[in-house]
Design brief:
- The structure holds 2 protein chains of 2 kinds.
- Chain A starts with a strand and ends with a helix.
- By secondary structure, chain A is an alpha/beta fold.
- In chain A, strand 5 (225-231), helix 6 (237-253) and strand 6 form a beta-alpha-beta unit.
- Chain A contains 14 helices and 10 strands.
- Chain B is an all-alpha fold.
- Helices cover 83% and strands 0% of the residues of chain B.
- Classes of the chains: A alpha/beta, B mainly alpha.
Amino acid sequence: MALYCSQCGASNRDGSLYCNACGQRLGVVAAATCPACGAMVPALARYCSQCGTPLPALAAAPVEGEAIPFSEEEAGSLEAEAPSLGAWKGEEETGKKVTGEPSVSSFYPLPPTPVPVPVHWPGPELASAAELEAAWAAALAGPPPMVELFDKRGAWAPPGPPEARDGRATRLLRASVPRLLYLLLLAAVVLPLAYPALRADLVVQVGAETRQFYGTLESVPPKGLALIAFDYDPGAGGELNPQARAIVGHLLRRGVKVVAVSLRPAGPYLAQAAFRQVKDKGGYRYGEDFVDLGYLAGEEAALASFAQDLALATPVDWVRGRPLAEYPMLREHAGVQQFDLLVVLADNEPALRRWIGQIGSRYGLKMAAGLSALAAPPAQPFLRSGQLAGMLSGVPGAAEYEELLGQPGPGTVALAPQSLAHGVVLLAIAAGNVALLGSWALGRRRGKSKGTRDRT
Amino acid sequence: MVKKLAVAIAVTSGLLVLAGFFFRHPLLAMGQGALANWATILAAFALLLGLANLLSFHATNVRGRRTGWGYSLLALIAALAVLVVGFAPELGWPGDWHLDWVFVYVYEPLSMTFLALLAFFVVSAAYRALRLRTWESAALVLSAVVVIVGQLPLGYQLWPGLVEAKDWLLAVPVTAGMRGILLGAALGAMALGLRVLLGLDRPYLD
């Protein structure tokens, strides 16, 4: 990965300490101060990142303004004494006369190559040649002061003005609150799982969406055929595995034959896990009650092909590797039109949209979806438009569904830790706003005390 | 000439697939099915190419001792180990548990662990970002609180109105916003599709 110089923008190899074009130390930004709000901004910034004020012009475009009284003789003698000052773009551009107000209030490093750098010029209060000379000498005596804008780990951490810097107690509090919240989150997840007594009093209220989903699955006739798409990664398994288990169990109990397929490489394993959890309880048999067609490579093209001819897209099943025609439940089903229901289990909305576009809408197949909490809000339009006949959302959806089935399972178990974790999120929101109020109050108090000092 | 031929093939294939969506004709269906199958086979080969590219990239990293070459070595070992395990039945190893074992005891826990870390980022973001700085941010914070509380059993026990408010937020503002995004994206996809079909955009020649 390339590193870009904050001074000249040149690209440098990863791991470089200094810019290969201008010598600027990488990770250190020469900074200026915004004349309006006083915030530190990187060199060459055109607008203040805090208040949006246009920053003073660069040397390449000198500011028009009133000339500082300054004779040519004085300038000539200074030039003779300090010839290297020619490297300062300000002199090149302004000649022997200095124009305009000082554009920035801090020093900038001298670049060895002629790249545009902001004008450094002593302020108008330094009117005499002696003062100008002293300022130049100071500037040439050593490297210009650099401001560390990144902490040791490389995070953006510009120093505030001295009066705005916090005390030790405030810094300690600021650093410890996020860590405390992380610890609370860990406890909120682990404790209810370790101590079942902590999750005993939760009352699961079944929502309208879950009832609609349940009704859709109930509408599939016994001996009917349902297709379940396992389109999620194991990362979302915490939310979707309980849904998958409940849906597969519900369908098989009703005598509906279930076929699993996936557009994700991990999908077949997730399907196998769901089947494994329910088959022993009901004595369901692979090939007679359910079949796993496995992974389909090729996204939408594969779906289009699969929709037309199952056997062409997936000639053999995933578990036994036998032709589909050997399974009685699939013998008479050439394409997806013969399915009574399609359930998509997905951890993102585009995955669901693929099934809707290629199969649900095109072949008029009844569709329902079990989604992660992240994917459910973007899928709302499909539910409202009737393209989805039902939708489960995240762990609450799984728990509500288990409640409807009268079989509390992993969804109900996961609801307590999730509820407590959400409580920690609410606490974090409250803590953040208390901190904001605190910083406002602190800033106001400092402003008042500064005003008092100014008056005195 | 070669370019014109490529464009002609691409446009004809695209139009054939598009026509298959609108007209039910056995010939169209057959052509569409054949093209979809070719695309599926190409996708499978693309997976192989991707694997070869990945292995080559990490092998170069290891050979040149580039920054982080140790991670590249780990990636190579992991990829090769899974490949060998995947071919276990063909190699005559007994049982069919090998890939299942890798999935259940390696891939699944790792994948879940990475996603679980998201919970800590969410807490951190809630602490740092959901602050009442402006009226807009206040609306955002309020919506977040209503949806979070309304989604939990606790929300109903606190006040059933919270659940109704959550349902309204999801049914009206969220759905309206998502519809706008989906329609915009669909119009964009149509415009892009037309450009490709008319041969104005030719990404397949790049």
